[in-house]
Every structure is written in structure tokens, then in C-alpha cells.
């Protein structure tokens, strides 16, 4: 288990699904359709390339939120309600099977967003555990939110100081405010704000809706204070 695949939820921000300008129900039906077509290949790698080209063709007319971000058709359902990579080596038994994708195995296997990278380095999964428990429906929108994560890293002793104990409720409210912003629905794993203490106001303005900004500022201040 890691930040991409947790016990009960998964993140698939790197694979581009959210870049399709579709509502959640239609995104789910795209995943379902890909999964059915992929399963019909019976894990025959000689058919992976044509699957990819065919699905790219079928999906090319769907508007993208960002034309620069690729949408990989190998993202499907690994099990009901769990999206993931259908050609991951854990499924194919071939360590290079993701070479059938646009990015290729080396990128697919090695890319870590900032929150995943931090958890891999520290061996501490408190943040992803918190999101899994408190925001299961929005997990995939939050764990990849690199701009938010960069701001959270300015909190002393994050994640320990806010994912449990007295500040947990404050933290939950703060994350809830972030979800009000429509940009939180665009998965931002490839963005990273450079946050300095001196420009935290600017970051608050970018991450939270105007009506939420005063409260977000107060909550952040509370989380940065030592003690309860
Ligand atoms: S954004 Fe992070 S957690 Fe999500 S799929 Fe990519 S590496 Fe995994
Ligand atoms: S091949 Fe790479 S980009 Fe495509 S679904 Fe798998 S991990 Fe994601």
C-alpha cells in the first residue's frame, strides 16, 4: 500500500482522467467501458498497443481542461470502485508492461507527487491515512493537490501536529474549505507552489474561495501555533 493505492481508496491523478471535462458519473462510465474492453484482451500484450490507439481515438473528441495533459486509457477499474493502472507490473507480471503507455514504464513507476514522495521517504502515512478516513470520496482530489500540500508543509510538525489530537478538527475544517474551490476538482499533481512564509496570504488567495479566505487564514494560524 502507498498513497496511490490505499486500503479503501485510490488516487489516479497522474493518469489524466480528471483532465476530461466530464462529470463524475460520465468519468466512471468511461472507466467502465475501458475496463470491459481491456478485460476482453485477456492480458495478451500483443493487443495492448491497439487497445491504446483505439481508446485514444474513441476519447479524442472529449474536451480537455488542459490540452497539455495526457489522458491515459490504461486507467480502469482494478476492482469495483477502485481505479488503477490496468497494465501495472503487479497485474501483468512484466516489469516493463507500462511501456505500452504514452509515458512508459520508467515514468509510470517512478513519478511521485510531493505528498507521496514525502510519505515514501519518511515511512509515515499519517496524511494519506487521515484523508482516507475523513474524506474517502474526495481522497483522489486531495492527496494529489500539490499546491495544498506545499502550504501544509509550512505547519510545524506536519502531519503529526494536525492529523490527530487537538488540532484534528481544525485541520478537517481547513481541508473542507479547500474543497469548496473549483480548482480542487482539477487534479494538480504536476503543480507546486513555492510557499514562503511571507507570501502565505497570496497562497490562501489562490487555494480558497474569497468568502472562505478569512476563515482559512485563521485556521492556518491556529494550526501553526504551538500547543492546543
Ligand atoms: S498524484 Fe500522487 S498519489 Fe496520486 S496517483 Fe500520482 S503519485 Fe499517486
Ligand atoms: S500506464 Fe501509466 S499513465 Fe497509464 S494508467 Fe498506468 S500508471 Fe497511469
Features:
228 residues, mainly alpha, 2 domains, two-stranded antiparallel sheet, 12 helices, 46% helix, 4% strand, binds iron/sulfur cluster
Quick rundown:
The chain is mainly α and 228 residues long.
What does this structure look like?
This protein has 2 domains: 13-110, no CATH class; 114-224, no CATH class. It contains 12 helices and 2 strands; from the N terminus they run ααββαααααααααα. It has helices spanning 24-39, 48-59, 89-92, 105-110, 114-122, 126-134, 139-142, 146-152, 160-163, 168-180, 200-207, 213-224, and strands at residues 75-79, 82-85. The chain is elongated. The two termini are 32 Å apart.
Reconstruct the topology from this structure.
Blueprint: H1 24-39, H2 48-59, E1 75-79, E2 82-85, H3 89-92, H4 105-110, H5 114-122, H6 126-134, H7 139-142, H8 146-152, H9 160-163, H10 168-180, H11 200-207, H12 213-224
Antiparallel strand pairs: 1-2
Bound molecules: iron/sulfur cluster (2 copies).
Number of helices, where a helix is a run of at least 4 consecutive DSSP H or I residues = 12
> What fraction, in percent, of the residue positions are helical?
40-55%
Global Rg: 19 Å
- Separation of the first and last Cα atoms: 32 Å
